[in-house]
């Protein structure tokens, strides 16, 4: 808390360029987004406001309104990290909300505290989430063919 940090979901595999792009973004409060117009129920969908900031980050978002999916890499400024951990504390210890995604705390910051979070367009850079044995096999096959990872 109180320090800039990068939060990476534990079930992702990505090219180094993905992390570099998030770290190089001019605004520290940002998250990696894979653009897509074919999102389903499982993806953490991203909706932007009229200024290009993240307005919604949730699986429940209507896929038609989303620009893409969050890949599970967020960067927080020192001030935002303090707010993020406070929101987690309030949600987990205060309200007992233990079976939810950390994105819910980020959404609370956006809704209640006017938190400005900016998308980092990752284009076609490789990033995959491993949720099933089939996902693992697919990622394994892909990574073995990549020259840099």
Label the overall shape: globular
- Major sheet details: 6 strands, mixed
The helix-and-strand class reads: alpha+beta
- Determine the mean pLDDT: 93
Taking all Cα atoms into account, the compactness measure Rg is 15 Å
Number of helices: 4
Spans of at least 5 consecutive residues with low confidence? none
Encode the helix/strand succession as letters: EEHEEEEHHEEH
| Total strand segments | 8
Please indicate the percent range of residues in DSSP E strands (runs of 2 or more).
Answer: 25-35%
What portion of residues is helical? 25-40%
Distance between the termini: 30 Å
Can you offer a commentary on this structure?
This protein is an alpha+beta fold and 149 residues long. The chain is built from four helices and eight strands, in the order E-E-H-E-E-E-E-H-H-E-E-H. The strands form two sheets. Strands 1, 3, 4, 5, 6 and 7 form a six-stranded mixed β-sheet that branches. Strands 2-8 form a two-stranded antiparallel ribbon.
